[in-house]
Amino acid sequence: MKERIQNTIWFLVENGPAILTVIFAAYVILLSQRGSVSQSEVLVWILTILGLLATSELVERFRRLRNIQDTSVQTLDIVRQLRKGAFLKLHGEGSRFAERAKQARQIFLGGYTLINVVGSNMGLLEQRLKDGCQLRVLMIDPNALAGELIRSTELTGRFSRDAETVLAYMIQLRETIRSTKKGKLEVRLLNFVPSCGFIIIDGGQPYGWMSIGIYPPAYKSRLEERVHFELNRDGDQPWFGLFMGQYEKLWGEGRPWEGLEQ
Fold first, then answer.
1. Within a domain: residue 212?
2. Percent of the chain with pLDDT over 70
3. How many C-beta atoms surround the C-beta of residue 53 within 10 A?
4. Contacts by 34-38 with C-beta closer than 8 Å and gap 24+?
5. Which of 23, 45, 75 is the last residue of a domain?
6. Domain CATH code at residue 238
7. Does 80 fall in a domain?
8. Are residues 163 and 256 located together in one domain of the fold?
9. Residue 92 C-beta-side C-alpha neighbours within 13 Å
10. Which residues does residue 230 pair with via DSSP β-bridges, in sequence order?
């Protein structure tokens, strides 16, 4: 009962300004058609409607930020519960992307720039697309506020170069699809810094596999200092399903990259 009341309140907060905007706009149009309102009163109503539109935009931004915060908190809570020791691996230890991706029908990637997994596996990714694979790439928008944040705090000074390199790789993969008329490539850009990285192979299949990279704040560590853990769909529930859902939420927040359409 309490949860239902909270959901109702959030619905009113998130949608109230938009609903009021439509009602006030219809009311002003009706009054103006009847000629029962002066020009100065119409201007007042217009300012009111503009204020409601601005409020609606602020509420929408708050909702998006709240969803992002909830996603990050859930991810961090789960990571804290995961076992330590052999379960966590340093970069390069036990990574099985190339092995897993050889026959993959679906590859979902997500992270800061993905320079390492994309750059070191371009031949494999091209071949998978030629065989009809679906490839998703989700990375930080280097020209957005998140990109500025990383550039202002990173230790290595390579973020912008890495991002531009990966986007150039995406153009190369786009040309592969155009020449073979096979495969599917989607690229989206994030306007915020994700709390973890994703490599997901055939996530919708019983044999699905994923590697989750744990990120320190904003590019503040070197690659060899990062750790990751691996999950299998058939043996690591509910964690596999939860991280799959997290990726889908982040994907929904991403902006389609216009470079694929050029």
1. yes
2. 62
3. 14
4. none
5. 75
6. 3.30.870.10
7. no
8. yes
9. 5
10. 211
